Amino acid sequence: MAHPLASGSVVDMHTHTRFSDGVGTFEENAAAAVAAGCAVLVSTDHLTLPAEMDPAGEVQVVEPELAAHRAAWAAARDAHPELEMVYGFECDWYPGCEGNVMRWSSGATVLLGSVHWLGPVDGGGWIDDVSDMHVWEGLGADGVWSLYVQTWCRACESPLPFGTMAHPDLPERMRNEGFPATTDLGTLWDEMAECARDTGRRVELSTAGWRKGVGDYYPSRGLLERFFRAGVPLTVGSDGHRPVDICDGILDAYAHAWEVGYRTIEVPRADGSWESMPLR
User: Fold this and answer.
1) What b/e sequence results for 56-85 when a residue is b if at least 16 CB atoms lie within 10 Å of its CB, and e otherwise?
2) What is the CATH number of the domain that holds 56?
3) Is residue 83 part of a domain?
């Protein structure tokens, strides 16, 4: 069992490198984390995807680079003994993904569950790609939200060992791109909170929404309050895709979680254990 963390230690649960859709290296991310006073840095590049979802391999660690990815992470870990680094992946859920995820993520300590893709693998699309809005144009904002929540709950129900569910209300990304929901999201948020509770999932409080023009955290306060009332445990991450974003807003996110009612967050450790860390 890892040594307990001090209350309120900086932990970044969600980070990316240029192996997937980030811009930095593991070494650059680790150096940025050390400079930010980080205690635990979880590396979570986007896991390998079917060719139909990302033909050019732009947003994933492509299969031939999985070994190099692990080696580069290990080199950064060994160069920074003052930082506890945890190896993981962000894993998109899509129908039938379970075998792929377990094969491609072999050796990872932490898996983040996420939903970015809606529809069947060969006929769906990304919901957070501002260069291709065909899913939003076809379904409308309310239709995207309805299908997203259905898919998100299926991801929660999956047998995959997701340590936490990342950025739970990702469709909010398009609110300021001309696709705000026109119906009350409360019923859908209730469904998400119940699903996370009933499947024993943790959820992530992400600071990325502030950097992406959402004007709030993921999840927004109304959904976070529902997760809290349902007793759903919380993790915190930056979803940093640049070294400058590593640990961005983490301490403010702790204060926000405290205001909602949380008194602890969940932290994965390098030995595979999880710890409930008190908030200040």
Assistant:
1) eeebbbbeebbeebbebbeebbeebeebbb
2) 3.20.20.140
3) yes
